[in-house]
Amino acid sequence: MTSSESFIPFNKPYMSGNETTYMLEAHQRGQLAGNGPFTQRCQSWLEEKTGCTKALLTHSCTAALEMAALLIDLQAGDEVIMPSYTFVSTANAFVLRGATPVFIDIRADTLNMDEKLIEAAITDKTKAIVVVHYAGVSCAMDRIMELADQYDLFVIEDAAQGVMSTYQGKALGGIGHLAAFSFHETKNVISGEGGALLINDGRFAERAEILWEKGTNRSSFFRGEVDKYTWVDIGSSFLPGELIAAFLWAQLQHADAITERRLNIWHTYHKAFETLEGKGILRRPIIPSDCQHNAHMYYLLLNSQTERAAFISTMKAHNILSVFHYVPLHLAPAGLSHCRTSGKLANTEQLSDCIVRLPLWPDIEEQQQRVIDQSLKSLQNR
Ligand SMILES: *Cc1c(COP(=O)(O)O)cnc(C)c1O
Fold first, then answer.
1. Which of 151, 251, 320, 370 has its CA 20 to 30 A from that of 30?
2. How many angstroms separate the alpha carbon of residue 6 from the centre of ligand 1?
3. What is the mean pLDDT of the segment spanning 94-108?
4. Which of 161, 191, 244, 325 has the most ligand 1 atoms within 8 A of CB, as the residue to mutate?
């Protein structure tokens, strides 16, 4: 059966309208390589918005996490505590350095790493805790920073989904020693592929710039601090060109408006599913009172994998795309060979089977009622 109803995609990249103007401006200025005026504007904006010491644009959140793993000087055999319920890059960036991700379970309310399980996972090889702020809702950062302090560990925020979210009034990305943002087209603020490394512990600032610029001191040279630039450390090409930064600048200028629109859409969904939650048909997201989120995602937790599969296929038959993720990393082939678990990951395994994500993007407003009506129908006629 094919539906005559128009197609509603899961995601549609937002455009502010100024992206191409700024890209042309970069070309007319004659600099398309990285670290030009648009890169600097974006980085200053990120520094102001998060309060971080230094922000560096990268090709992706993945690349920023790889830089973080280099900066904390991970050695083969070191351990890094993280959730298994996350995107592969959270683990891969550390596996690339020969470190072992140690997975702990998530909380049933936020689907974030359960901070009560961290202490039991710490060994004398543990070097860092990598937190993932799922759906842009913060992990329990006060407790996590306290543990890091007590055991002398680094905290790295995978804040890929957390741009414009806060925890106790503090911007996500501005709390751990290091943090990574994503500007991938599926995130809130985008540049196609893109990301940023945020440095909150000033000790890393100088070396981060060197790793970023292929292991050279070119950034110091540009500032006139040294009279020539040369190879001084390991590094790679982590910086994007000015076209990406120009596109991103147009988006950052609209970051408040994007967040507001997404929050409105999020709240419309939230209200619409309240009754079904009351009937035990689903569970809605839970936002702790000290977290202000950015409406990165609206998800429902259904009662089983079978109910989820039925929901997704009914929606699809009506031309509406809903999706799920993640295959827990500890069950994935590479996870089995490179990682280990600490304790049972019961919430991870159960919740990843039951989650479904609904379309959420600025401009969906006029079609959102159709998504809601069809969802309610699909769920009530199970
Ligand atoms: C999207 C995402 C990433 C990867 O971001 P890229 O910019 O595509 O590298 C990493 N971690 C989480 C939690 C993500 O959601």
1. 251
2. 30
3. 98
4. 161
- Segment 116-137, tens digit of pLDDT: 999 999 999 999 999 999 999 9
For a mutational test of ligand 1's pocket, the pick from 58, 60, 61, i.e. the residue with the most ligand atoms closer than 8 A to its C-beta, is 61
- 93 ligand 1 Cβ < 6 A: no
**At CA 222, angle to CA 220 and CA 223, rounded to 5?**
65
**Range 19-252 classified under CATH 3.40.640.10:** yes
| 255-380 CATH fold | Aspartate Aminotransferase, domain 1 (3.90.1150)
For residues 241-270, give the mean pLDDT: 98
Rounded distance from Cα 7 to ligand 1 centre (Å): 26
Share of the chain above pLDDT 70, in %: 99
Give the H or E element holding residue 82.
strand 79-83
The rounded Å distance from CA 14 to ligand 1 centre is 18
Q: Where are the domains of the chain?
A: 19-252, 255-380
Return d(Cα 16, Cα 24) in angstroms, integer.
Answer: 15
The answer, yes or no, to whether any atom of ligand 1 lies below 6 A from the CB of 161, is: yes
Query: Is the pLDDT confidence value at 2 over 60?
Result: no
pLDDT digits (tens, 9 = 90+) for 340-370: 999 999 999 999 999 999 999 999 999 999 9
Q: Using an 8 Å Cβ cutoff, are 121 and 130 in contact?
A: no
Residue 155: exposure state from Cβ atoms within 10 A (0-12, 13-18, ≥19) = buried
CA 89 / ligand 1 centre spacing (Å): 7
